[in-house]
Structures are given as structure tokens and as C-alpha cells.
Amino acid sequence: MEKISNEEHIKACLEIFDRVEKVLKVKKWQILPMQRKALKNPKSCTLGYINFKTRKIVIDVFTPARAQPKAYPSIMATLAHEVAHIQKPPYRSRYKGHMINRQHYPAFYKQVTRNVKKLKKDKELKEYFR
Asked: CA–CA separation, 98 vs 76, rounded Å?
């Protein structure tokens, strides 16, 4: 990956976010880069999260340890995962006599794979997967 400034990287990520929003048909959701402070433990970090109440998807666009720009395929894979939470929402089920929240389950991961394939097929986004 070429050496680019952080501002250029964030600008490119915002363009990717706009295109992903159209390709995966995520309307009325705001996709933002994460505003991160210094990490206490770089081995335990959040790559992205989704807030259903505020309808925001937040993605970390820099590496945790050195705060270097992340590769675009990695950012899009994380985004595909977070969008899958909208498409296959979590549900509660009974397991060994207890109610549990199922956030990541086989149908969910199939949706993530479908999302990544859609992004790879898109005319504008497929250049980032090279």
C-alpha cells in the first residue's frame, strides 16, 4: 500500500463508505470513521461497532498498535460484518435452560460472505481488492 497521509486516508474511507452504503443498500444509517484516543491495550481493540438506537456504524480505519492507515479490503470486510448485523439482527434463544443473545451465528456469517462478494463485484470497489 502506498504511503498516504491520514487526511487522505480518511477522505478515501469516506468515499468507500458512501459506495458501500449504495451497494449493500444501507439507507438511513450513518457510517463514520472511529475517533480513537490512545489505546490502553492494543491487543484488545474494537474494529467497528453498530448502534441501533442512533443508527450509526463506526469503523476503525487505523491499525491499533501504530495508528497507521488500514488496508481498504480490511476496512470493507469489517464494514460488511457490521452491515450484516442490520441484515441478520441478533435474537434471543434458549440454551441449556438459559436465554442467550445470538449475535454471531451461521446464517449471519453467510450474510457477511455475501456482502463481501457484492463488494468485490462492484465496479468502483473491486479495484481496492487487488
From this structure: 35
Residue-wise pLDDT tens digits, 30-62: 999 988 776 677 677 888 999 999 999 999 998
CATH number at residue 46: 3.30.2010
Q: Is residue 112 in a domain?
A: yes
Q: How far is CA 43 from CA 6, 40, 85, in A?
A: 22, 9, 24
CA–CA separation, 17 vs 32, rounded Å? 8
* Cα–Cα distance, 19 to 80 (Å, whole number): 12
Domain tally, the chain: 1
**Residue 82 CB neighbours (<10 A):** 21
Number of CB atoms found within 10 A of residue 58's CB = 19
Classify residue 1: in a domain, yes or no: no
Range of the domain at 89: 6-129
- What are the tens digits of pLDDT across the range 47-102? 899 999 999 999 999 887 778 899 999 999 999 999 999 999 888 989 999 999 88
